Amino acid sequence: MASGAGETEGDVSDAVSVLRRVFGYDAFRGEQQSIIEHVITGGDAVVLMPTGGGKSLCYQIPALVRPGVGVVVSPLIALMQDQVDALRALGVRAGFLNSTQDLEERRLVEAEFLSGELDLLYLAPERLRVEQTLNLLDRGKISLFAIDEAHCVAQWGHDFRPDYLALSMLRERWPEVPRMALTATATEATHQEITSRLGMENARHFVASFDRPNIQYRIAGKSDPKKQLLELLRTEHAGDAGIVYCLSRASVEKTAEFLVQNGVPALPYHAGLDARMRAEHQARFLREDGVVVVATIAFGMGIDKPDVRFVAHLDLPKSVEGYYQETGRAGRDGQPSTAWLAYGLQDVVQQRKMIDGSDGDDAHRRRLSAHLDAMLALCETVECRRVRLLAYFGQESSACGNCDTCLTPPQTWDGTVPSQKLLSTVVRLQRERKQKFGAGQIIDILMGRKTAKVIQFDHDQLSVFGIGEDLREAEWRGVIRQLLAQRLLAVEGDYGTLVLTEASGEVLRGQREVPMRREPEKAVKAKAAKAAKGRRAAPVDLPEEAVPVFEELRAWRGRTAKEQGVPAYVIFHDATLREVATARPSSVGELGSVNGVGENKLAKYGEQILAVLSEQAVPAAEQVQQVTQVAAPTAGRQPGPGQGQESVPEEEWDWGGEPPVEEE
Ligand code: ADP
Ligand code: ZN
Question: Tell me, which fold does domain 542-635+648-652 have in CATH?
Fold first, then answer.
């Protein structure tokens, strides 16, 4: 029982000393301290914090301070080993129980748990449905329950896991043990579901700012997405680790292949690959520097690699929540990073079709539609992307200066007349000819093109033929896309034919104006690096003379990580090595004051690091030159591909191929 008067319950003042001694950090961030103090004194907590905000410390430190073992419930079986390795590297006694272990391994961890030799125990949620596990937990002393990725309990959300529903029993079974629910997903709806389904009504709620100032959000017009991606990688992210999201398995494969052919170390990841290959690709992404994973959304939850420099979406995500969570995997270390999305007409058509064809009742389809509408509004906005994103999570903010619309403001124009022309064409075809066509044919008619298909159907005889010669094809595509996004036009059937909606009439009758977004002539580019500066997450600029030292330290870290079979960041983060390279400590004592160097790592690696530093006393001049280029891929940001063009090849329009859904 946790009430025990006189029994040491763990002291709040211990928290700071654990932070310094074990983790090597000087100070708590944001609300970490209040959360930790609240839990140490036995309180329940619901913690909403963006990815990279520092959630782990919020349960790790109370688990170290309070007597007993902290039980962490996490759906991320594949990552438990790494999480535990990272803790063990800090000298924390951590273990896990999941289905990847054999009986003997499990017995060992169980014995450690029972004899009080663990500080933290990670469990998959399905374990807690097994009576055996519950009995085991009954026989040990538990300091707290931390329910990680708590949004998995929410059916409204996108990561729902039925096993999470059963976690409400923790309160009944262990009423005296403090419980924490933690997530990086923060819409009001999800927050409420977490609270009610986990029975956390009496918990204290900590909602951090969801801003990720170091991430630059950019949404570009889609023309040739693979090429656009390559351009982005070459000009801004050469040698960087990153994630590229595609909707279908086939496009994952094709994109990865394309990148490899162009010299980018890229690996595919999707649910159709066998488990061994998936594990291998994930491990390489985590362990090697500069690997790009091309994946469906099956990849990424819980990946806590701190130095992912970019997240690119080649297809439109299904919801803002999903998009924010996926892009949030960039830049956990606070260094400048890019979230880049290519978006075009066929994305809208494709998603609307998928929703129409989805299983489930009308309510389900309405929910999917609401998610998509919010995502489309974000894509079509002429305001700051970050303001829109944060508003979605209920947070007010002002223009950020570090997104594409802030850096290169798009203009609005009055699209009412072109919309009327386009809608009348659809009407004419339907009324006069009883025909329906896709975007390609409609644009040909508007632009007065006598293509074979136009002649075949006598469409050059229509009164609307050629009335849209004042706009370019790309502009017409933009008009259709925005009409679809605003639900003034709809798509139907397998061929994506265009049809009117109830609201179309208002536009045709001149009762409604249609403001549209005009893409800026030039996309965001060189301003990028500059813009990120001055914000909280300014990059740690390495002085020139520190660059070869940093590279040597990274090489040492790479060797050490390989020997131990752990990811490099488990040894030290980039930020820590940068600080070491700049400060060049000359004693173990000085090294210990660097952020991220705790007691355990100091004892283990202190001498080795000092040796690397002393070998690097006088760097050769040309070495400096050479390495600068490799180490500073963001230094020479160059213009990216133009944003305004949207010319989707016709054959992509009438795609009839594989279903673009990812079933996990
Ligand atoms: P989350 O789980 O919220 O995504 P993490 O717990 O992985 O975030 O923390 C993100 C990064 O920030 C990690 O590299 C972690 O070591 C670091 N970090 C967390 N808290 C602090 C702190 N108080 N001072 C310095 N670094 C911190
Ligand atoms: Zn902005």
Answer: DNA polymerase; domain 1 (1.10.150)
Give me ligand 2 centre to Cα 399, in Å. Answer: 5
Q: How distant, in Å, are the alpha carbons of 121, 137, 239 from that of 64?
A: 12, 18, 38
Going by C-alpha positions, the residue among 341, 229, 237, 342 that lies closest to residue 289 is 237
Pocket test for ligand 1, best of 18, 25, 182, 595 (most atoms within 8 A of CB): 25
Distance 638 CA to ligand 2 centre (A): 20
Higher pLDDT, 160 or 660: 160
Going from the C-alpha of 342 to that of each of 227, 246, 647, the distances in angstroms are 11, 11, 13
Under CATH, to which class is 215-410 assigned? alpha beta
Give the pLDDT confidence of 305-339 residue by residue, as tens digits: 889 999 999 999 999 988 998 999 999 888 899 99
Query: Does the structural domain 14-207 have CATH classification 3.40.640.10?
Result: no
Q: Identical fold at 14-207 and 215-410?
A: yes
The pTM score is: 0.77
Domain boundaries, the chain: 14-207, 215-410, 414-501, 542-635+648-652
Q: Which ligand is nearest to the CA of 401?
A: 2
Can you tell me which residue has the tokens 């004194």?
41
Cβ proximity of 74 and 302 under 8 Å? yes
> Helix, strand, coil shares of the chain as percentages rounded to 5?
45, 10, 40
The closest ligand to the CA of 572 turns out to be 1
Q: Ligand 1: which residue has its CA nearest to atom 10? A: 52
The CATH number of domain 414-501, selected from 3.40.710.10, 1.10.10.10, 3.40.50.1820, 3.40.50.970: 1.10.10.10
**Ligand number nearest to the C-alpha of 184:** 1
Between the CA of 22 and the centroid of ligand 1 the distance, in Å, is: 13
Residues lining ion ligand 2 (Cβ < 5 A) are 384, 386, 400, 403, 406
Nearest CA to ligand 1 atom 12: 54
